[in-house]
Amino acid sequence: MSEDIINKFKEAIVVMDINSAKKTCEDALATGVEPFKIIQDGIVEAVNIVGERFEAEEYFLPELIMAGEIITKTMEMLEPHIKSKTKSKGKVVIGTGKGDMHDIGKNIVITFMKAEGFEVIDLGVDVSTERFIEAIQVENPNILAISALVSSTMPELEYVMKALNKEGLRDKVKVIIGGAPITQDFVNDIGADGYARDAIDGIKICKEWIG
Amino acid sequence: MQGVDWIMSGRERLIGVLRHETPDVIPFSMYIETTHMAALGLYEPWRKLLDQGLCLFAALAVQTHKVTCPNVTMDVTHHYKNRTSWSPVDLLMIMDTPHDISARITTPKGDITFKAMMEGLDMSVMLPWFPEDGFIIKGVEDYDAHKYLIENTEYEPFYDNVAEFQMILGDYGVIPAFVPKSPLQSLIMLMGPRRLSLDYYMHQKEFDDLYKVIYKKELEIYKIAAESPAEVMWGPDNVTSLITSPKLFEKYCLPFYNEVSDIFHKHDKIYVVHMDGELKSIAELIAQTRIDAIESFTPPPVGNLTIGEARKLWKDKIIWANFPEPVSLQGQVAVRKTVRSMLQDAAPGDNFIMEISEGFPSELHMLQTAPTILKTVNKYGKYPISKE
Cys staple from B110: which of B3, B145, B245, B263, with CB 3.0 to 4.6 Å? Predict the structure, then answer.
């Protein structure tokens, strides 16, 4: 019975049906299914399927955004029913580089990472090198994730890497960089650890590092 | 034109290729903003490049229509921060600098408000780019006011600027008619990719109704542009399959592109659309359009479709390829190598134009890179290019 409801819930997320997702989430809670089971077997599974379809170019940004919205709304429904906190998979500090105001990719990464069990500290957009450094000193994250959609932000990312070295923080945090103008060569040149082709690729890499 | 013994101007090369002719050398163009035109005569290095064949493409310079919107008012407040006192001289200088604006558009069907960050005072260009409190359309509740605004806007032809700007640029460049983004791309600008995705899935009927209103109204503007003296029609669509997925492209973009292509072709105009993103997943659908040129086509490492792949799929289309700007960070040797590789991919070079259409990491990178690209194109881009 609970398997049926969870499958319906998962399917509703995968086909972008928010009303059905909310309804089946409600039904699952009403029939006594544990919230963690709904998250693990419903949301996390759905995230994997959506990610696979994105990689197969069956789904695109609109589907990632819509799935993210359904996940956020259903997580809000589940949260009041969660009695004990689960252990976080790892902590991620994330932001867009200085000069970049585009946050859609970053926000998708945050939604999906949270669904995967990461704790995410979102520094927002147009984040200065100093702000990244301060956040790493205060939050002590496992991963620093930076996105850049405009090429004028790319030199700023190099400053962040230099500042990490200068402050003695480089070995304490893995750095992953993504965004339209970013290339593997650029990531190698500035000495970051990972290059995210897109949001789903970025999450995959972070899971490999910490998972 | 093959075998000519005179040097063609940048404009002749560009228009020649857009008319499916083969020039002496592959054209190389760069965007030029109207405000920069005056500086051209003063800045000698640019003049040298222009004399060597660089063609300026004044993409954003000329709209061929004027707009009036009766029964609608717009109040705009400009917010300049961090100034406690201004002298009259300060005022003049500060007004054209980056700042915030807040605006209220009042229609009989409701008000629309937005806050945005502006680079200067040219609202037509900068308005939708840096919204501070979300986009102009914040939700489905804003649709009625927008539909009223769109349906009650009146357009009239205004062609004076085409001849005027073309006279200024002369043989150094081309002035297209700058038409609005196609309806789906306009919706992306008005509501942002996030709202567009959510409304497409959650409010499809209302979304489609708004789309149809924009589609119908834009045809009026496109018809005015078609009757203008401009030879080239340029749509600033910024298409990328990440947002304009195959499903969206097929449903919303393809019918519009083909309807306006036919309007333009009836008037012997060249229809150019700016598509600077990832195009691989929609490449076959683009092939089905009757667009003449895909401008700002960006090959890897920024885009995901090679020039060779695009040429195979888009046999009758002109590929107007943007030099991928991050390569400039790797130095001029890498720039030369990339240009040669792009030219090789485009061999023998028919229906191919090279350009810089996107922002560089810095002005300095662009100033160093543009001469390298031109020099390399002039050396290795002689038609026909043979495969190495």
Answer: B145
